[in-house]
Amino acid sequence: MIKGIKGVKDILPEETPRWRFIEESARRWADRYGFREIRIPIFEVTTLFARSIGAATDIVEKEMYTFPDRDGTSLTLRPEGTAGTVRAFIEHNRSADPLPQKYFYIGPMFRHERPQAGRLRQFHQFGVEYFGTQDPKADVDVIALLWRFLSDLALPDLTLEINSLGTAADRAAYLPVLVSFLKGRIGDLCDNCRRRMETNPLRVLDCKVPGCRAATEDAPQLVSHLSPQAKSHFDEVLSTFAVLGIPWRLNPRLVRGLDYYCLTAFEITSSHLGAQNAVGAGGRYDGLVELLGGPAMPAVGFAAGLERIAMMLPETSLPPSLPSVYVAAFGSQGGPAGVRLLDALRLAGLSAQSDYRATTLKGHLRQADRSGCRFAVLLGDDEAKSGSAVVRNMDSKAQETVPLPDLPRYFLSLFKGF
Ligand code: HAM
Prior knowledge:
Helix content is 38%, strand content 21%. It has helices spanning 16-32, 46-53, 58-63, 82-91, 136-152, 168-184, 191-199, 210-215, 228-244, 288-291, 306-312, 334-347, 361-371, 381-386, 407-414, and strands at residues 36-37, 43-45, 66-68, 74-77, 101-110, 122-131, 158-164, 249-250, 262-270, 278-284, 299-305, 324-329, 351-353, 375-379, 388-393, 399-403.
């Protein structure tokens, strides 16, 4: 038997109602904040990701699915949506259109990570990208959209963790201070962090190894090395949260695993998720559009992991499933009348089904029970001849006779409100 790939999951019919509900809710919240959907390709040239995300990040160093095209061009399955959205923004000259431009996307992403609960190799993100304003209120809009969306789904124990990564100049001034601190603790750092100290020292602050965490407990913090410009941006973000009543927690270790960020960086975490505790994350990336060959263009965005949301979504958040009618038709006249009735119900906009293997009333009722339909229409030869069928409530077992032509209207009024 050929099996699916490790870390790449099927989403089975029992699970898809949960997914559809989350995706519909994401679209609704994106609409409310004025984000329009963009659909970008699943694969792009490798340099797009290497240049945007950063050559010395875990994603680019070891997690990308990269393969040569037939002409030798190196292609990569997208590990995230920001790079492709920025490429499309530049390629279609969207900066010539009125700003700001606000996009959202929903779709699969690919990273060769070690699979575990909430961490997959093919996973799905809902993301937004907001181009064209440096105003801290845009950062807040993006974060508030994610916060409101996740809270509306009633996900438990959410925390908004936030930090400022300063401007590029702030980081350039801070990094030597950090590296000199790390050099003093080099004996306590893991091998990976010793290497990162040279290639991407900020990431050492994000290491989960307990020894590294202890060693960097009193490391100098970037948030204490902000320029007046970065500090006032951050202060305005935080004070706007107060206006909205959205609680936050400063996390000076939050540095993000992608290199394009500046100023605001954030994650929304939940204690219900275990080790992979970020439900969604993002930040400002004012230099990326220009880095990829576009105009100077401030931008901010986030992406949320749909698998993690699906894992946490309480059953009570889901709407009840749409009611469906089971047509139990049997006999030489009942059978054809049943085919006509199924068609009439579906044309009226109702969900209707039958099991064609059942040929007796008893067989049909067993299937009706299994199908989860709330109502069954019992339609044998006698009913077909009389022009009326018996409607049976599958829960209460109450029955009622209804003329065949009236059945679509009968069910439509019964199911009103769904
Ligand atoms: P990220 O932090 O790499 O950011 O991913 C965002 C979210 O995607 C994570 O918080 C997590 O919920 C989910 N996620 C990431 N990797 C996996 C995985 N292997 N399995 C399951 N879920 C995963 C970005 O991707 C940025 N592009 C976000 C952004 C948009 N920043 C600005 N705009």
